[in-house]
């Protein structure tokens, strides 16, 4: 057996072993969570923060948000068109929403294209937190809905004593083969959150307002990987980050073009977390060893292994397929057999886009995305006293 084939098999078995350990631990944690779910209380002392800018058509969950009325804060920028503001205020007036206007960030895309980079989204969240008096907040995307009331999420977080709560996301749309593949992928990824709750999901997470405010005051505002950075900073600042089994449906790309655009952006975010912020390795050596060594350091070796012959690739596919079938047996379908090829494409192709994707986003946003806790005295975004809810139009501007 050649050295390349041996390396490929090592990678396959290492990944397989990691998957088995994660799945086993997650199942044990899931049983413990389920036993306590019936005792969860519900709270109503929270605000729902929804970033929306560029194009109002991205606000796809208006009917869902209407349930929460004045708890909802639509977070937009001071750089939108008059037509956008008119439409946004009409939606807010109809449903009793509040509107917050904050400064846009660098690296923002054009109005016709949805942002996959820049600093606008996290800048808005950081700034609006200084204008809230609710003790809890839930941050959700403009296309996210939940089957359970957000009050249950806040109640579970409060009862567990968490400062920041991570929740599992699951694909809501199953209308294509690509969405079906992502459903299997998401289940494995969300299982990891049960063990490592600081891997916060950006589509929906909750927190105590004062804790999240402090976290965001230290945030780099780099968009890709911003959710995980939130969890890492919270942990570094001494806050308690926990997982709440509050499953949230999310819309995933159903076309190859949309999926590629998302994953190339994600690859840049992963490069930022695992390589640019290498200093974090001392706090999470196991996770960063997987990301830095298996994903990036062995990237050339994987290509050499694939080029050395079909046997190495076939060995990886067979081993990976076997463990996937074992782990996903209860949810098996015909698309599960394609998951090894799906993973192989990500491992051999998407990883190659990581550095250029990160570099493009960092240069465009003029932000390297370094994660660090600034000394309080030097913090340019120190806490300001909360203000009461604005009257009439519900507008609050930050210039």
Molecular structure report:
This protein starts with a helix and ends with a strand. The chain is globular. The chain is α/β, with parallel strands linked by helices and 399 residues long. Helices cover 49% and strands 11% of the residues. The strands form 2 sheets. It has an 8-stranded mixed β-sheet with strand order 8-5-7-4-1-2-3-10, with helices on both faces. It has a two-stranded parallel ribbon with strand order 6-9.
Low-confidence stretches: 377-399
- Count of folded domains: 1
How much is the average pLDDT? Answer: 82
Order of helices and strands: HEHEHEHEHEEHEHHEEHHHHHHE
What strand order characterises the main sheet? 8-5-7-4-1-2-3-10
The level of helicity is 40-55%
- Structural class, by secondary structure, is alpha/beta
For the largest beta-sheet, the strand count, sense and barrel status come to:
8 strands, mixed
Query: What distance separates the N and C termini?
Result: 64 Å
User: What is the molecular shape?
Assistant: globular
Task: Give the tally of β-strands.
Answer: 10
Annotation keywords:
399 residues; two-stranded parallel sheet; 8-stranded mixed sheet; 14 helices; Spore Coat Polysaccharide Biosynthesis Protein SpsA, Chain A; alpha/beta; disordered C terminus
